[in-house]
Amino acid sequence: MSQTTETTPAEQSSLRDFGLWAAVSAALTLFYLGMIVHPEAFYQIVRPDASTAYFAIHPEQNSVWDHIRYVSRYVISLGVNPFSAVLLYGLLAWCPFALLWGIARPRRLWAKVLCLAPLCLVLSGVQACWMPVILWTLGVILVLGVLCLARMLFWKKPSPSGTVGEIRFIWTVPAVILAGVMVYTFLAGKANREESCILSLASRGNYVKALVRASSLNGMSPTLAYTVRYSLYQQGQLLENLFMFPLDKQTAVLPIVPFVAPEPYYKTMLAMGFVNSGEHFAMETLERVGDAPEVYYDLGIIYTLKEQPEIARVYWNYLARNPLWKKRAEELLAASREDPSMKEHPAVKPYYAHRFTENYFASADPAEFQMRQSLKNDPRHQMALEFLAAEYLGYKNHAGIISLLPVFRAQNYSRLPRHIEEALCSARLEDPAFSLSDYTISPNTEARFQHFRELYSRNAKASSEKIFETLAPVYGDTYWFYHLFSTTGSLKMKQEEDEE
Amino acid sequence: MRILYFFILLSFSFGSALTAAAEQADIFPDYSGVTLPPNIAPMDFYIRNPAKAYQVKIRAAQGETLEISGSKPEIIIPETKWKKLLEQNAGQELYWDIALKDESGSWRNCETITNRIAKEPLDSWLAYRLMRSIFNTYNDMGIYQRNLETFEEKEILHNSRIEGACLNCHQFQKNSPEQMTFHVRLPKIQHPIVRVRENAPVEVLRKTFTYYSWNPETNVIAYTANGPSIFFHTWGEGREVYDKAGEVGILNLDTHKTTSQPALATEHYYESWPSWDNKGEYLYFCRAPDLPQSKFNDIRFDLLRARWDPASSHFSEAEMLFSGWTNRVSTAQPRVSPDGKFLAYTVFERGNFPVYQPSADIWLMDLESREIRSMEHNSDKADTWHCWSSNGRWMVFSSKRIDGVLARPHFAYMDAGGHASKPFVLPQKDPHFYEYFIKTYNIPELITGTVKSDPKELGRAVMSREHVVKVGTTDGGKNVEKEQPPEEGYSSFKEQNK
């Protein structure tokens, strides 16, 4: 009887291998679980350099679990853009899969299926980051489909040597899964992905690329719309190409509900001189996206401007724990210790000129009021002028635009921006007598306006759709078109700008 | 002989010159001149004075001197030896001798730091809420507990377990961890109050308050439902909270019934910050005229108290203790000491919410003589959310004194006359902790042991229908307090995404 219960050496070896495989499998599963279903995961993909800022401070973060997460975040942060970050993420999953397969014995069906766990998790993680939530079910179906395919491949009869089936399994299944992920993300998450890419580009200062990509969209979320306007301003294009992008009254130049785009909003408020609003929406950004190194960087600046250098240093100290930001943070810390006001430091100095230090109760101030305040505070504030002018354009406020002409003159604009000229052409139809503050409208704009009117008059009896179709390809990016239809025509930004 | 005399004189004058010039050690956190509990975790610190090497000797009348030296300024005190030294010397002085080695290799002594070890221990655990410095949106917040004798920190409940809801106002009955309550702000489950007990099922009570207090002797909670809303300023502290109308109500946790309190419901006024005294005989609370938000600058809360009649479950008429209006300050957060002698409360410029006001200080009223004074441990930053230890000898409070924005728990020894020692910040294993930790400690509450509930199970229970308890009224709903106005301005990240 005892002989029948004894295990053979081969079986013992198999069990040992199996135990080892199960342990590694469990560890790696934990390794990937941390990547899923958290706002930070999304942020991490959009902004890989943010991923290392998540530090072990609290019990739930201070666990072995989080150190493992930290390693994966660090590896992913090496990706120079979201695409390479995702590829690294995929690679991280494939390696353990191969490792698991190598050590898994006996290779029973369920054991082999378990080998796929890291890949399933990476698929799930990519899905969570790149797909809208409503497509989750489809994602699950896809995973199941891929698993069925894997199962079919599994049962392929191995060659007598027993190796062909294994090799086929190792190389084919991941390839099929990754191909599935690519196809699925391409088809199902295109809009989401496009928006992520544009936000990512803009947040890293690649404004031209962001704008080129955004100009090909037919519609924009409020978050994206505001990011585009911020990018336009950064490129000196706000009053030149504002109407190249989708715009309607609901998405006026500054977001009516800043929570839709807290990050560019806080940057705008900070640049406008409203340090408290900058602080407010920088904090909102942190709550929405998790750890964001550039927000910590800016919070330090904000608190320095608020004359609270101690807390500024807390944020920079935290930032210094991120290896990718350490050098910059330490430089700021040293400067802050030397001169807490940092009035001469290049990162802080520009904001002092516009800093708004008057205290009033500001819960429901419209953006226009804030911009007017900012311009009143510093009449040479270019950003306040351009955003206010853009706001007036968005609301078709001709009187407002005319009132700003002396400010353009005071700020030494050699000529009026294109959209301002266009708006003045329209305004002249209502009141030909207003002063241009020594500016002239360029002959080109005058000629185009005449042509626009002629084209419109020629089609006056046609249906509104027909007029729209006629005018959009030529004048879709003008104020006149927006004034007429309260929307913009879709004109693409020139690709060559991408190369600049 | 003359030469000998000269050398003696010289050595005396040199010695006294040395004494006069002794360098002050600049340590962070500032643990100099403080009174410490005999059961506190090692008070690790770092020395800011520049030096090539550092040596610290921690000594007292009894026991082994602890010596820590090295080239790094961080002084990490061995836990076991520290504990033993403190135990052996309770009630005596504790000396920290700090020496610095300069570039030339010679050592110089800093002035000895003298601390005192109190005889009375501190409650061994501290419960608090941790979150970033939030404005409108919250995403990552949790209630935690920390063992004050070690560095162990445990989660009680993180809001990721309850769909990102807001967690606030955790409270315990008489510093006991056996029963606790906290709020959950989540529309899906109707903003309940959650009651957690040892060896009993969790209760999710369908009742929303803003501020509340446990009666120390019975399972009765006094509450006000105010509907706070946040608003902003363009310069200085950006946040301020405005509370709408609120009235005192009573919730009996055994019968799950509420009782309105007409004696305290004064027309054109609203009440806030209810707090029972040590015996559950009086309820202390704050009251202000019901002014609109636009008059936020004129809102001043008075401090009052009313006697409780347990038989009828009603209060008598309130008596005024401190007039905020007369003194041109506002009051909040009254808390009576466990011996019933003192009332500590927060005094600040205006409104109902002291946390965002740098002027906020803790004041003390001698309940016998009615004398009042600002406490010794206040700073020029907000000092709020104070809590007495169960033995009445310690006070913990949230102070923003380190950086002006993030609140950190500070502890002060309270002598029999109600005088506070210089406070010290909660010790951390890493002495640099408060220089990079970007979360704020909110509502520190001292408890005598650990809350034993499992965070996962607690999260599940909060979200589960099985634990829901409906709350009724004693008068069939005829005489209930006004409906609580909704909380405005705050929302969770998940709610916003919806």
Highlighted features:
heterodimer, A: 500 residues, mainly alpha, flat, B: 498 residues, mainly beta, Immunoglobulin-like, Neuraminidase, 2 domains, 5-stranded mixed sheet, 10% helix, 41% strand, globular
Q: Quick recap of the structure?
A:
With 500 residues, chain A is an all-alpha fold.
Describe the structure.
The complex is a heterodimer of chains A (500) and B (498). With 500 residues, chain A is mainly α. Chain A is built from 28 helices and no strands. In chain A, helix 3 packs across helix 7, helix 7 (117-130) packs antiparallel against helix 8 and helix 20 (367-377) runs antiparallel to helix 21 (382-394). The longest helix of chain A has 25 residues, at 9-33. Residues 31-63, 127-136, 162-168 and 492-500 of chain A have low confidence and may be disordered. Chain B is mainly beta. Chain B has two domains: 20-117, Immunoglobulin-like (Sandwich), CATH 2.60.40; 125-473, Neuraminidase. In chain B, strand 12 and strand 13 form a beta hairpin. The longest helix of chain B is centred in the first third of the chain and has 19 residues, at 2-20.
Total count of helical runs of at least 4 residues of chain A = 28
Low-confidence stretches of chain B: 3-20, 477-486
Q: Give the largest interface.
A: A-B, 40 and 39 residues
**Which sheet architecture does the biggest sheet of chain A show?**
none
Number of strands of chain A: 0
Largest sheet composition of chain B = 6 strands, mixed
The ordered string of helix (H) and strand (E) elements of chain A is HHHHHHHHHHHHHHHHHHHHHHHHHHHH
Q: Which second-level CATH architecture of the largest domain in chain B applies?
A: 6 Propeller
Q: What is the CATH top level name of the largest domain in chain B?
A: Mainly Beta
Using only C-alpha atoms, the radius of gyration of chain B works out to 25 Å
List the helices and strands and how they pair.
The complex is a heterodimer of chains A (500) and B (498).
Chain A lengths: L1 H4 L3 H25 L5 H8 L17 H14 L4 H22 L5 H7 L1 H14 L5 H19 L9 H25 L1 H14 L3 H8 L7 H13 L3 H4 L20 H11 L2 H15 L3 H13 L3 H12 L5 H13 L10 H4 L14 H11 L4 H13 L3 H6 L1 H6 L7 H13 L12 H16 L5 H12 L3 H7 L10 H4 L1
Helix pairs in contact in A: 2-5, 2-7, 3-7, 4-5, 5-7, 7-8, 7-9, 8-9, 10-11, 10-12, 11-12, 12-14, 14-15, 15-16, 16-17, 17-18, 20-21
Chain B lengths: L1 H19 L6 E2 L6 E2 L8 E3 L5 E8 L5 E5 L3 E2 L3 H10 L4 E9 L5 E3 L3 E5 L7 E7 L5 E2 L2 E7 L5 E6 L7 E8 L2 E10 L7 E5 L2 E6 L5 E4 L5 E5 L3 E5 L6 E5 L4 E5 L4 E4 L8 E8 L5 E8 L12 E8 L4 E2 L3 E4 L1 H4 L2 E7 L5 E7 L12 E6 L5 E3 L8 E6 L5 E6 L8 E6 L10 E2 L7 H4 L3 E8 L7 H9 L4 E2 L2 E2 L17 E2 H5 L1
Parallel strand pairs in B: 2-9, 11-40, 17-38, 23-39
Antiparallel strand pairs in B: 1-3, 3-6, 4-5, 4-7, 7-8, 7-9, 10-12, 10-37, 12-13, 14-15, 15-16, 16-17, 18-19, 19-22, 20-21, 22-23, 24-25, 25-26, 26-27, 26-28, 29-30, 30-31, 31-32, 33-34, 34-35, 35-36
